[in-house]
Fold this sequence. Notes:
The complex is a heterodimer.
Chain A: H1 2-17, H2 19-44, E1 52-58, H3 63-74, E2 78-82, H4 90-97, E3 101-105, H5 109-128, E4 146-149, H6 155-186, H7 192-199, H8 221-235, H9 238-250, H10 253-258, H11 264-293, H12 308-332, H13 336-353, H14 365-371, H15 375-387, H16 393-420
Parallel strand pairs in A: 1-2, 1-3
Antiparallel strand pairs in A: 3-4
Helix pairs in contact in A: 1-11, 2-8, 3-6, 5-6, 8-11, 8-15, 9-12, 9-13, 11-12, 12-13, 12-15, 12-16, 15-16
Chain B: E1 9-18, E2 21-33, E3 38-42, H1 49-56, E4 64-69, E5 72-73, H2 78-84, E6 85-88, H3 100-110, H4 115-128, H5 144-156, E7 162-166, H6 174-189, E8 193-197, H7 201-207, E9 210-215, E10 218-224, H8 225-231, H9 237-245
Amino acid sequence: MYKLWATIKKDTRILLRDRVGIALMFVMPIILVVVVTSIQNSTFQLVGKNRLPILISNKDTGQSSAQMIKAIGNIGMFRVLEMPKNQNNMADAMHNADAMLGIVIPADFSAKVSAKSKSVADKAMTSFGLAGDSTKKPAGDVDPLTLYYNPVLQESLRLSVKGALQSSLQMVESRETLRTLYFSINEKQLPEKLENDMLNNRAPINEMPVSKDGVHITPNSTQHNVPAWTIFAMFFVIMSLGGSVVREKVSGSYIRLKTLPTSYHVALISKQVVHLVVTMFQAAVIFSMGIWLFPYMGLPALNPPSDLCALVLTTLICGWCAVSYSICVGVFSDTQEQSNGFGAVSIVILACIGGLMVPSFAMQGAFKSAASISPMHWCLQAYYTLFLEGGKLKDILNNLIPLFIITLIIQFVTYLGLKRKNLI
Amino acid sequence: MALTEPLAVNITDMGFRYPDNADMSFSKLNLKIAKGDRFGLFGPNGAGKTTLMNLMTGVLPVDEGNITLLGHENGKQKNAVNKLFGFVPQDFSFYQELSPVENLEFFGAWSGLNKLQTKQRTDELLQILGLDDVRDKQVKKFSGGMKRRVNLAIGVIHQPAILFLDEPTVGVDVQTRHAIIEYLRVLNDNGTTLIYTSHQLSEAEGLCEDVAMIDAGRIIARGNIDNLLAEHKQESLEALFINLTGKELRD
């Protein structure tokens, strides 16, 4: 036991004196969590504070286009900007206005919407057996609105924008058709109250996040990002630990240790204990920031899960996996450059396929399968169940077991590497 | 020294080959080193000195034959054998981020000492090797000579019966070399068998009694220094070395 204690003291001292390593393990992930959460918080607030600027060039002078612009403003997702009269080029105007989206409403938009409405109303009157003018030629289609978008806009967001615009357009066309039909039947204007009742009588949609414990936690950028980037931070331990394993090999310490009457397993256990404490501390620091500091930074506070034991267990297994992976990379690397380079790139890849950057459910089939080999995927699923769905330990066992198995496999590969390189 | 049993080192029909370097190999090598000897192992660069040292200390496993240290077969009784010897490698094989005390605390524990024994030996060695004033400073700030002394202190902390030294004085000034050699003499007087490699043949001549010269994995001369010089009609170990290994430059 004294051997293990002396080794733990040695590893702790070396770790505490590696200031760059500590900065990489703590400062960098904290910056990452704050930056990513802040950025994503803006996306979460698209319907609210940070509306998308949309530039509208209205070449029409009628009522329908005005109603259309009003409807776009009412969606709650856009900040409507009018295109300056002296500009003709939409691309330049969008650039000048810093707008990601632009719409051109054609010159005869209102007239064509009106003509189409009349045509539909006539058809309806004929169909009802009332006096409709069925000899009239059907009205031509309304000229399309043109939606300009900045190519950096993600397709998913673009599709939501298109859906919202179509909904506004449909509202304008329905209103016009309704008015025309009402006038044809009653020969007077449709009362405004009736018009509003008829157009706004859709059943409301209640949004309800799925929850395992009945407590509804509203998802927000903090709730999504803090757990995800905490996992990434824990795997950042590779920058210090992987390099430390290589340094020990290169400096010849391994050779000396091999000649001493102590098993190298003591050194491996010590490294794992010391760095596991580091990963737990990382998680504690980042979660604490999310709970107590984020509200002062204008970000939503992190709601800790109700099952804290499950949270500790998940963090412990994830940390152990990160430490095991770091030692494995250190054992197979011949230089610190190899360990740091491969380590950094590999954890980014594991984070990508693990769903930290793009949700796993949005991935294509092959990538979905690949996600299951990333330990980060299983840890993220467990964290999301705890943080977003109010899950308990029994709900995350199906995530923790694969994570545990992956860790054991990494340990076995490390053992083979140590044997093959004649290090134990 | 008389070759009485158990021998400090007994190498019998030993064969070894690096998987990726066929040039460096040993075949049917035999070597006996008596207890209490001050034994020098010499040879040009690439002759196999460090490899032989690594084989004797169990860092590398032998392919054929066997090596025993004080009657214990190396590789089969690892923990028992490793308690018998100390190893001072050519590289600074310790943690430069730690102080001498912290290094000795760690290596003392790994050498099988308890906390009290480690503390006593640490104080003693730092005093003997002139490191007491810098006991709590990080080793990375030390001169080459001070690092050599730390390297030596770690190798002898558990008072081994056999001490393997791979070029223990390389890159140090005359004073440090003198201090190290003197300390090795004291250890030997107290019963420690010294097995030593160096390119400083004049230094070795003053320290060693018996020597072996190896080249290309073979022992080309073995015996008492005086006898070897007389046999080959040479006046110094350096002259004998040139006579046996030639003047051709080695890698």
